[in-house]
Amino acid sequence: MADDLGYGDVGCYGSAQLDTPNIDRLASEGLRFTNGYCSASTCTPTRYSFLTGTYAFRKANTGIAPPNSPALIAAGTPTIASLMKQAGYATAVIGKWHLGLGEPGQGPQWNDELKPGPLEIGFDHCFLLPTTNDRVPQVYVQDHRVLNLDPNDPLWVGDKKPSPDHPTGISHRDELKMDWSHGHNATIHNGISRIGFYTGGHAARFRDEDLADRWVSESKRWISDHQEQPFFLFFAAHDIHVPRIVHERFQGKSGLGPRGDAIVELDWCVGELMQTVKNHNMEKNTMIVFCSDNGPVLDDGYQDDAIEKLGDHDPNGPYTGGKYSVFEGGTRTPFITWWPGTIQPGVSDKLVCTIDLAASCAAMVSVELPDDAVLDSVNVSDALLGSPAATGRQSLVQQDNGRSGNYGYRRGKWKLLRSERGKQKNVRLRLVDDQVPKYQLFDLSVDPGETNNVIAEYPQIADELKRELAEEIGTAETR
To answer: In whole angstroms, what is the distance from residue 337 CA to residue 46 CA?
Structure first.
């Protein structure tokens, strides 16, 4: 799962400006979906929905998680990991977590055991960035502990300045190696100011430039250790989320600034994992799914030339919106399945979503879904495997962040856009667009960019979709 990667950000989805040979090879050897979605246009709700198979808007506080968020998925909740574990699979998550750690009302106990967390919802092993890297703290969590934490230098994380002289992106702005544009101006680490404050834990802190390498090396080791048994690995890349600080060997490689360089680094990660599977002769019995947690954003808090060096590159491809938006660009992203000898190479227009991976993988390993969980995940395994008879998902609710009331609803060629706040986000500057009507209707078959609101021409279709959207939001489940 990539982070903030847009539909048009890779070669196989139309980018002529960026070189992504490994992702392109994954697509050429596998199945590239043109109607592949994540369930929300920000990271935490998509990750919640992907793991639980339940729309994030069904639970409060599933918007972008703060640094000290408690675990958003309660211990014992059935997840894609626990379902796979039930079938005898070893399970691991390596990379960005951003779903909270610790008990409700307490949050993460950084100097003690960090539980509940991934290990309490079906993962045997985790090696995590606990939040997201524009938020504090910059440490790894391995299983239940902060890795390499010195007890004589305890880690403190908070949302208020710990002391009047604590260096921040405001007070020490001239010392930053990447300047902030909005919001990301609290504690400084590695020459970059972040959201939130922390002190201590110096031996445990990592260097931004090394994140991708560490994710890959940990994944290679874990795959090698488990090559003799079935396994499920959730590789949660941080690329291309801000701050876009890639390893030195990728800096300047794209010609599009740090954002483009992060895509090059992401592509390298994909290539390394593909090659690891092939090196262990596992490609004939291993399925790889490539996706993103939401659509693209350019200026997302740092001055990293994402706009200035964009050139002719369009991260959205043909779509409107992006991260934070329920226009198509917010949730329609690259989505590829790869399984040599089982999945025939090609392109699919079937509607699939990351929320469906829980039910689909459970069906593939013959595990029954619990009656009271995995409430919105649909078994689209036939579509994921490229069956000619596959139909895919029939409809999909798209949300932005949390439960703000902005939703998209996709059914067939029709897309209903509900803007409860009357505004939507703009991918280029992360600014709000002009005031928009509460409801808009688009025919995606002729207007994929959602530029022509046809609600006045098709009032009956609009009324049907309004009713269906209200029902899907208001009921306890949709499967």
So the answer is: 18
Contact 395, 411 (CB under 8 A): yes
Cα-Cα-Cα-Cα dihedral sign, residues 195, 196, 198, 204? negative
What are 215-250's pLDDT values in tens digits?
A: 999 999 999 999 999 999 999 999 999 999 999 999
Q: Write the CA distances from 282 to 7, 53, 125, integer angstroms.
A: 29, 27, 21
Structure confidence by residue, pLDDT tens digits, 466-478: 999 999 999 988 8
The answer to whether residues 103 and 116 touch, using CB atoms and an 8 Å cutoff, is: yes
Q: Can you tell me the distance from the alpha carbon of 470 to that of 332, in angstroms, rounded to the nearest whole number?
A: 22
- List of residues 6+ apart from 103 with CB closer than 8 A: 70, 71, 116
With beta carbons less than 8 A apart as the criterion, state whether 94 and 126 touch: yes
Cis peptide before 104 (omega within 30 of 0): no
Write the single-letter amino acid at 373: A
Which neighbouring-strand residues pair with 188? 193
Query: How far apart (Å, rounded) are the C-alpha atoms in residues 281 and 300?
Result: 41
**CA 146/CA 130 separation, integer angstroms:** 9
Look up the pTM and report it.
Answer: 0.96
The Cα-based distances of 125 to 93, 94, 118, 223 in angstroms read: 7, 8, 8, 12
> Which one-letter DSSP state was computed for residue 114?
-
Do the beta carbons of residue 35 and residue 68 sit within 8 Å?
A: no
